[in-house]
Amino acid sequence: MNLNKNLISLSGDASFRRFYRNKNKKNSIIVFANKEKKNNLLVYDAVNKILKKNNIKAPKLIKEHYKENFIEIEDLGNKTIYDVLKNNKNKISYYYKILIILKKLQKIKDKKVKTFNKKNYFVPKYTKKKLFEEAKLFLDWYIPKKVSKKKQILLKKKLKNIILNLINNLQIKNKIFVHRDFHISNMMLYKKNIYLLDSQDAVYGNIAYDLASLIDDVRFKTTLEEKKKIFKKYISINKLFETTKLQNDFEILSVLRNIKIIGIFTRLSIRDKKKKYLKLIPRAWNLIELRIDKNNKFKELKYILDKFFPKKLRNKYEN
Fold this sequence. Notes:
The chain has helices at residues 37-53, 81-85, 91-105, 128-146, 149-168, 209-215, 224-237, 244-271, 281-292, 299-308, 311-314; strands at residues 7-10, 18-22, 28-32, 61-65, 70-74, 112-114, 120-122, 176-178, 187-190, 193-196, 203-205. It is an alpha+beta fold. The strands form 4 sheets. A 5-stranded antiparallel sheet has the order 1-2-3-5-4, with helices on one face. Strands 6-7 form a two-stranded antiparallel sheet. A two-stranded antiparallel sheet has the order 8-11. α3 crosses α7, α4 (128-146) crosses α8 and α8 runs antiparallel to α9 (281-292). The protein starts with 6 loop residues before the first strand and ends in a 5-residue tail after the last helix.
């Protein structure tokens, strides 16, 4: 796309998308992607259609220019929920509003949607294989950067087995609509409503996944007490009485997600030269530590991580 003087570049996300605001056209954002454009443009809009159909706020499509690698969507302004909450002493009440949105999200039953190119898109399942492939990003990108070649083979073998065992210990069936990146940086406040962003990776999976994304958010710190309050409120809103399985899956998925995040952020710095995410890796480690400490199901994982990734390494990141 040839940029002209009327387009203002906006801060992007971890995808291959780029965002621009059109100065001469009110309420219009250009979303450009020349890599993985099906997922970043076509599927992105398709999932947004599903959300809007189910009374969940999401950006609406103004016009598609798919052959030119971009779409136009409505402009939701600049205020993310992260911006709203970072200096807000009453953030827990805001989290309760978000849990109502999560409840709506998890009631979605739509398995397919018509895209703007008139073809059906089917929301995929979050399979055990997919969960493993994501966690494996830690093995493929972070370990080679931090561990000597001599130690890598044995470490990777042990971690593969541990990760597979954790995935096999999930207790709840994969049947719930999952946003898959449900955290406050992917929510916008616009006209007093909360809008969801970055929804193109939605799947049908485990009910605990989006809850883990929200509570154990690598970008935004909350205290352990706040995390417990949000978890308990989720249970009360959804009237869940048997919480043991939910707690089990929540903890496993939080750990797997943050292991994946460390791998993704390392890949972004090496492959895509996006180094700003490296500063979040120590936070991901902190969240992993929070869930595996004194938790018997993570005993083997804790032993391996403590042996190969000491505190000094976990707390360090490169600029």
